[in-house]
Amino acid sequence: MRNYIIKRILLSILILFCVTFVLYVLMRSLPASFVETMAMQLAQAPGAKPYEEWIAQLNASYGLDLGIVPGYLKWLGEFVTGQFGDSWKWNVPVVEEFKSSIGLSAVMGIIAFVLELIIAIPLGVIAATKQYSRADYAITAGALVGISLPTFFFATLLKLVFSVKLGWFDLYGLVGRDYAQLDAMGQFLDKANHLVLPIATLVIVSVGSLMRYTRTNMLEVLNADYIRTARAKGLSEHTVIYKHAFRNTLIPLVTIIGGSLPGLFSGALITETLFSLPGIGYNSYQSMVAGDIPFTMFYLTFIAVLTLASNLLSDILYAVVDPRVRIS
């Protein structure tokens, strides 16, 4: 196992180099550019230098006058030494802006993911063990609704019902108007109140696919020969389902659960935009539109590292969940 992990880490580093190079090329090819926008603004000032001179000066300042490969090597050298630079759009260090927005998205993502597991897996097992029953049809129909309808529809529907009609939650924002006058507990509850609808939206749009996946894999396991043998031995249905069948159902679920790690920190662009939440998803999109290469590169590299780590975690969990799987 140790040698396998070392090999995978070395391979992941090589893949990361390739991924960051592709990302850098894409960032340099963005149609929008902070440099062009800034040069245009500076050139419009009274007595200012021409636009072309400002373009050349700003490109030289940010290293954009170099070719793709030299520019990437310069960026890579600075990135490896921890020099992530300043965000062009937010006018603060990249790490500072990243820290200020990643926390909100991470909290929303983790809570939504835990709720998704708590809801989807038990309902998927129930639908599989009671195949073609009313419960199965109801669960399957609910899952299909969640899969089919878009995020903006659910978010708008929730705001219409619970914000406009009932007035239980605010339509937008992370805090209320009287947030500054509240004590510590009141401020915590105020933020929690504003996150109820966004988290509910994330859960609704994601729980259906995991529910269907659990049901499908559970049905496949329940039809296996060893399950029929366990029943023939006189074992209780509860033991057959939750001791024998469910453990083997976890094996394919590990792929989804392990692979969901990047999604917990990548942010939810549509949800954060609809509810006006300053999360990492919305901020990273704004940075890409503005041609903010330093922040975008840092964010996408962070997601790439999480993706590679989640793939390694999935492989390790396979051996933990199924004792028949041994990595050599």
Keywords:
mainly alpha, 0% strand, 328 residues
Q: Quick summary of this structure?
A:
The chain has 328 residues and is mainly α. The protein has helices at 2-28, 34-43, 51-62, 68-80, 94-129, 134-148, 151-165, 184-222, 225-232, 237-259, 261-266, 269-274, 280-289, 293-321.
List the helices and strands and how they pair.
Elements: H1 2-28, H2 34-43, H3 51-62, H4 68-80, H5 94-129, H6 134-148, H7 151-165, H8 184-222, H9 225-232, H10 237-259, H11 261-266, H12 269-274, H13 280-289, H14 293-321
Helix pairs in contact: 1-14, 2-3, 5-6, 5-8, 5-14, 6-8, 7-8, 8-10, 10-14, 13-14
Number of strands: 0
Shape: globular
How would a textbook summarize the main sheet?
Answer: none
What structural class do you assign from the helix and strand content?
mainly alpha
Helix content: over 70%
The ordered H/E elements are HHHHHHHHHHHHHH
- Low confidence ranges: none
The helix tally amounts to 14
> What percent strand?
under 5%
Walkthrough of the structure:
There is one protein chain. The chain has 328 residues and is mostly helical. Helix content is 76%, strand content 0%. It is built from 14 helices and no strands. The protein is globular and about 90 Å long. 26% of the residues are buried. The mean pLDDT is 85.
